[in-house]
Each structure stands twice: as structure tokens, then as C-alpha cells.
Amino acid sequence: MRVIAGIYKNRPLEFKKTKQIRPTKQIVKKSFFDTICPIINGAVFVDLFAGNGFIGIEAVSRGAKKVFFVDKDDTFIKKNLQNLNISNDKFEIYQMDVFNFLNLNVVENADIVYMDAPYSLKIDDLVVFLLKKLKKDAIVCVESNKVVENERVFKIKKFGNSILNYLR
């Protein structure tokens, strides 16, 4: 796996693939960043269920002002950030459960939130809770294996068994 674009373009990323960690496919990642390209520069970005950190690192590479990585296991997030020598002022890592993180009120200033929860996790209530916390014009993208049932969905992109659900 590599960074697709930006200042870290083509730099390699280390990863661990397990039942719990499923790296986002390059085509899915590219589609997501093509969609948010007009607003990523200078944005506050939150990577929920960050896994290996690929999405948040891509956001930093493409000009996000600050990225918040949230995952119970931050081993590969830290490893990749160190390998790329990304400045500490560009990110914060929260090694904790996403539900606990959302209660910290950090997410309220986010411009973009990417959520790639384990496909087995029921996320509908989490999505509703998250949307209540965000400012009005924030964009949420939920990577899932199903369409998110919510009236705030404005775009859906399918890639095999991966679906990107965009909400505002």
C-alpha cells in the first residue's frame, strides 16, 4: 500500500490485515478523496476506526490542517506516521473506543469525518449520534458493506462489497 497523492505521494505504508483490520482498497480511497478534494485543504479531519491510519495519512498528505486518528490499537498508525516523518502538530492519536472518543467533544470542529467500522458492527445509532455532534456543513463518509439508512445521505458509491455513504 502507498499514499496516492499529495506531499507523501508514492510513499509506502505498513499494514497488518486481520479480521478486525481491513485496509481500504486503493480504488475506494481514491474515489473518496476525489469527492472531497475541493474541501480537504485546511480541513479538520477525523479518521474513526482508523486501523492502519491510511485514510488519515492520505488526508494529511493532501493538505488537511489536522487529523484525529481514533482506534483501540494505534500500533501501525504510529509506525506509519513515524516512517513518513509527519509533524506532530498535524495529528492527534486517540487510542480508545470510538464511542468514548465521541463523548470527548473533539469531533465538533471536524469538517470531514471518515468512518470505517468493522462491517459486523451495527452503525446506525452511531451515525445518528455522530451527526448530532457535528457542525452543519461537515461531511461524513461511512465505508460499509451496506447502504446507510438515513435521510441525510446525499451520495452513495459502490465498489464490490464496499460502499461509501456520504452524509451531511
Automatic annotation (TrEMBL):
GO process annotations (BP): rRNA methylation
Record keywords: Methyltransferase, Transferase
An example Gene Ontology molecular-function term: methyltransferase activity
CDD domains: AdoMet_MTases (cd02440)
Protein name (Swiss-Prot/TrEMBL): 16S rRNA (Guanine966-N2)-methyltransferase
Alphabetized Pfam families for the sequence: Cons_hypoth95 (PF03602)
Organism domain of life: Bacteria
